[in-house]
Amino acid sequence: MLTRRAAITVLTRRAAVTAVVAVTLLAGAGPARADDVRGGQQAVIKTLELTQAWRASKGAGVLVAVLDSGVDPRHRDLAGSVRVGKDFTEGANPPGTAPSRLHGTYMASLIAGHGHGLNGKQGIIGVAPEADVLSVRVILEDEEPGFREFNSAERFEHVVARGIRYAVDEGADVINMSISKELATREERAAIRYAISKGVVLVAAAGNEGDRKIDADFAPYSYPAAFPGVVSVGATDRRLKRAAFSNWNSSVLVAAPGVDIMGAGPGDEYWVGRGTSQATALVSGVAALIKAKFPDMSPPLVARALADSATDRPPGGYDTGTGFGVVNAARALSEAGELAHHTETARVGRVQDPAEPVAGGKGGPVKVITRDEQRVTAYTAIAAAAAAGALASLSVIFILVRRVRRAHSSQDA
What we know:
Blueprint lengths: L1 E7 L12 E6 L7 H4 L4 H6 L2 H4 L9 E6 L13 E6 L14 H11 L1 E3 L5 E4 L6 E6 L9 H6 L6 H11 L4 E4 L8 H12 L3 E5 L25 E6 L17 E4 L3 E5 L3 E6 L1 H18 L5 H10 L20 H14 L3 E5 L15 E4 L1 H42 L1
């Protein structure tokens, strides 16, 4: 039995943060048959090649922060994997109001659902089923009584930025932001810079306004997805083409399935929905697989592994609808392995520590730099040489000009 529910729209004051999904409730609150739920996930499992990816990584040891409307920690497919973190919306709802937590639970299940029953074969299996979730509540769903208060009160203006910083400080390896808004803020930009500096991978939804063109070249930009350093995710349809609702612009890095996506809801419910929110959660799951296998891999390299390994690439290798293509978990792990191999540290010499004597053959600590750093150092040297050459050329030109002027002055005299 299917019952339909209206799209969820979640707004934040001025910045208009939205988490929009069209959802359908499957089999009410009662237990659904295993083939209703897990069978409904088979298209995603196949597209992302999750069965192959799980041979290498299932996300163990990774903490994914879900910045959303809250996660139900008692859902049978998430039980034991959810840590309930700070609620930055506290005070918006009347005292004693229980949060809806539909959108957040839905996203968390796609990232780290572990199923239930014998061998976990029933219910939702997430992309990284052995990862843990940190629930950080930064939005309210529109049916919550504090919705208007949350969208108008000054104290809730920078909840997303505060949520990012909190997640980083709580040890998150990946931050999923299945939310979007049209305006960028300085606070969010600074929070994202802070997260990246701590090695945290940020993944965000490109937005669901793809039908609303700004001009012939792109649909609206969405934040935090459009900030530099954030993995911006578009949604694909059943044919793995850009879904009509998915924003298309040059911020989109990769895409993932975003139509007819099965997920969990609070109270052991199951839902089917569509949106860039779901696509984002799937990509966050793949990022968690990579971070579990290569915990020291930097956010830019994780993003590169996702992009370089994408399948269903558009003509020319990139377009604004699906970015570099559809994320593939198995190939992303393989690409991450190649990147890790090429960035292995190498001992390149010693740097004298002023506090340590050199006598007796004891020098300072050994400086270790990666091959990427060596490459950057080489490029810097080349650039410096080029700059020096350019300055020398300018000096010669200046001298020649002065000589010509002097010659003219002599002739005039």
